[in-house]
Design a protein that fits this description.
The complex is a heterodimer of chains A (about 525) and B (about 180). With about 525 residues, chain A is α+β, with helices and mostly antiparallel strands. Chain A has eight helices and 28 strands. In chain A, strand 6 and strand 7 form a beta hairpin. The chains are: A alpha+beta (about 525), B mainly alpha (about 180).
Chain lengths: ~525, ~180
């Protein structure tokens, strides 16, 4: 499928999902109905719609069966806590599976369960004969298929929890904050005052905030908070887009990103975006000088909300130290923001870095170095390969590629998301890497786009002698190890694994290039 | 009032009914949810259809397509319900009924694969994504209730839930594509 076609299909899917949800919530209006009918007049949309309805129904079954923590959950349209058979009536006869939710009493169960409704009528009509049939009927449900509707259990009505404490390091609490225990629930309105150390909060919406002392912070809701003093860094996954942090007269609304916020002594605020986009605006739109400013990857601004003054400041990546790691994600090779390449290789060679997986990981994104962070002039490709070390892991010369496990293309039109000095794209489906040897490769660097080669003796205008000057690596707390000395091949071998081992000047670094990279998480954190 | 005298009393027949209903209940549910707006109303129709199927099971000819028979009965119930429901004007009707029914056959043939894929793809969502979907279904698709509990705006919930379900859909499709490729 072409990118355009994929994009159109994606838009159609999202629109159908939205309209379907509007129907299911009972909020659909006439205009939306007309739009849905119009879309469904096309067979492609019709088929998509039916698949989505199936998915919604099956999701209800899945969630009714068991929740992620193994508890029975209540899916019924209930106002209060649901009470089901499994915990209420242990040791007595089982109930039939419920389609959705459960309520007290057989009649209520009958209302929510087709089979229960049927059996209730049956019981009334045939009386004693039904008892004889019970074993036959129940036998159907003691041998469940992949998913069946299960009886439900008591679930407490969720409390107004805004966030949870998920990490504390070297803390020193100020008076007024009662607690600081791991997994402590912070209800809406809770204040955090930290003299020193680091506190990590996981908001109910999914947003993660790391507060560094001295700082004061308040949990305003499950998807918002207020930085009263100090600084924080935040990671906001897609489902928590819209997460908002207030700082004085400033409101920072996240659009799915990693950003940091710091309140200075003069009450200005520094906003930095490492990835994605945020919108910074006045907290109160009725002020004399309203403003709204979009801030993108690798940008940093100082904002004085009192007079809407915005000035560009230098991006400081250290504000995000630990953010990725503590959100459970890691970037294997991360080129620093703004780094310029030093190799114009007319051969468009492939450049690869070897690594070994010591603990199973899941690769979610592939990336390539973007010299200067200004996009690409040519087409670059990132490839993830499994590698056969030929039984000699200490000798990369005899290694061979086994299979290309994943590949993504980066073009001038669709360069991907800039994170520090690299651009990333998400894999359509993450790739799980069991223990073994692998290589990340980037192809296409040449006259259009420069890579970095630490020891390009005959080409390097900007000679670099240490990868530490331009790159950080992250082994995911030891989940991977960086091995070898780098490898390359020429353009003439576009589909082959690069077998030329890089002759590093000092022969010690396993990552002499700025080229391909990847983002990963641990399969079993 | 239901005429219970029509119900089958043969144990084997009863067992057969339960087996068939269990086998086709997802199809029946999907069929009803396709046409009926609002989750609760669709669930009511499904309940009603199940009872009607039981009442008329004597008329079902063994060996024929129970799923198609169930959907036919559900269709009549949907049409009846539409007349009395305050949301009747939001039911999908007219020539769309036939068109949607035709499209159903193709999707149905893959439904078992889809279910398996759904389970796997659901596990791939983030914990907060899974939690949000759970709350949404737990509250019977009443997003105003979910908004109250989570403190989020209804608008942001529409965006998040639509996106999560789109993610699931994409993931399922990719897995099915792979499955077809291997077949």
């Amino acid at each position: 499928m072409s990118q355009n076609a994929r994009g159109e299909s994606s838009q159609l899917i999202e629109r159908l999902q939205y309209l379907m949800l509007r129907r299911q919530t009972g909020e659909m209006d006439e205009k939306e109905l007309r739009e849905l009918e119009s879309l469904l007049s096309e067979s492609v949309a019709r088929e998509l719609y039916i698949k989505m309805v199936y998915e919604a129904v099956e999701l209800a079954s899945l969630l009714a069966a068991v929740d992620e923590e193994g508890r029975r959950i209540n899916l019924g349209p209930l106002e209060g806590p649901g009470v089901g058979w499994s915990e209420r009536s242990q040791g007595t006869a089982p109930s039939l599976p419920a389609r959705s939710g459960s309520e007290k009493g057989l009649l209520h169960k009958a209302k929510r369960s087709p089979l229960m409704a049927v059996m209730l009528i049956f019981l009334i009509s045939v009386g004693g004969a039904f008892l004889a049939l019970l074993p036959v009927v129940f036998d159907q449900f003691w041998k469940p298929a992949a998913i069946i509707r299960q009886p439900t259990a008591i679930i407490e009505e969720p409390r107004e929890v805004g966030a949870y404490v998920v990490r504390i390091e070297n803390e020193a609490w100020e008076a007024g904050f009662s607690g600081g225990e791991l997994e402590q629930q912070l209800s809406v309105g809770s204040h955090v005052r930290l003299q020193e150390g680091v506190l990590q909060l996981q908001f109910v919406s999914g947003a993660m905030v790391i507060i560094e002392g001295p700082a004061a912070f308040r949990v305003d809701s499950p998807d918002s908070g207020e930085l009263i003093s100090g600084s924080l860094a935040s990671y906001v996954p897609p489902e928590a887009i819209g997460f908002t942090v207030i700082a004085g007269g400033l409101e920072v609304v996240d659009m799915g990103t990693e950003f940091s916020l710091k309140i200075n002594e003069d009450e200005t605020a520094d906003v930095q975006v490492r990835r994605g986009e945020v919108v910074a605006r006045n907290r109160n739109s009725s002020v004399a000088t309203p403003f709204s400013r979009e801030i993108f990857s690798n940008q940093a601004v100082r904002i004085d909300a009192s007079n809407a003054e915005v000035s560009v400041i230098e991006f400081d990546g250290s504000a995000f130290d630990g953010l990725l790691e503590h959100s459970g994600r890691f970037i294997a090779y991360s080129t620093r923001a703004g780094v310029i390449g030093n190799q114009h290789d007319p051969r468009n060679a492939a450049h690869g870095h070897d690594f070994v997986v010591q603990q199973a990981i899941e690769v979610t994104h592939l990336g390539v170095f973007d010299s200067g962070g200004d996009g690409f002039k040519s087409v670059l490709t990132a490839e993830l390969w499994s590698r056969d070390d030929n039984g000699t892991p200490e000798n990369p010369d005899d290694d061979r590629g086994i299979a290309k496990l994943a590949e993504l293309t980066f073009t001038p039109e669709h360069p991907g998301e800039l994170v520090a000095g690299d651009r990333f794209k998400a894999l359509e489906e993450s790739v799980e890497l069991p223990l073994g040897a692998y290589t990340i490769i980037a192809r296409g660097y040449g006259r259009g786009d420069q890579n970095i080669n630490m020891s390009t003796a005959h080409l390097n205008a900007n000679r670099v002698t240490s990868s530490e000057a331009y790159m950080d690596t992250d082994d995911g707390n030891g989940a991977i190890s960086f091995v070898g000395t780098g490898r390359w091949s020429q353009m003439a071998q576009p589909e082959t694994f690069p077998t030329n081992v890089h002759a590093s000047d000092d022969g010690t670094t396993a990552h002499p290039f700025a080229a391909g990279t990847f983002e990963f998480s641990l399969v079993n954190p | 009032m239901t005429d219970n005298s029509q119900q089958p009393t043969d144990p084997g027949r009863t067992s057969e009914f339960v087996r068939l209903l269990k086998q086709y209940d997802r199809r029946l549910a999907a069929y009803v949810h396709s046409f009926v707006p609002e989750w609760h109303e669709a669930e009511d129709v499904i309940q009603e259809a199940s009872v009607r199927l039981w009442e008329q099971f004597e008329k079902f000819e063994p060996g024929t397509n129970f799923g198609a028979w169930a959907c036919t009965i559900a269709r009549y119930l949907i049409m009846e319900r539409r007349k009395s429901s305050p949301k009747g004007h939001l039911y999908l009707m007219g020539e769309l009924i036939g068109q949607v029914e035709n499209s159903f056959e193709e999707v149905q043939s893959e439904s078992d694969f889809r279910l398996q894929a759904l389970q796997e793809c659901f596990e791939k969502l983030t914990p907060s994504g899974r939690s949000l979907l759970s709350q949404c279904y737990e509250k019977g698709m009443r997003l105003t209730h979910v908004a109250k509990v989570t403190g989020r705006t209804v608008g942001s919930l529409y965006t998040s839930i639509s996106r999560l379900r789109s993610q699931l859909h994409d993931c399922i499709e990719r897995r099915l594509e792979r499955e077809r490729g291997q077949a």
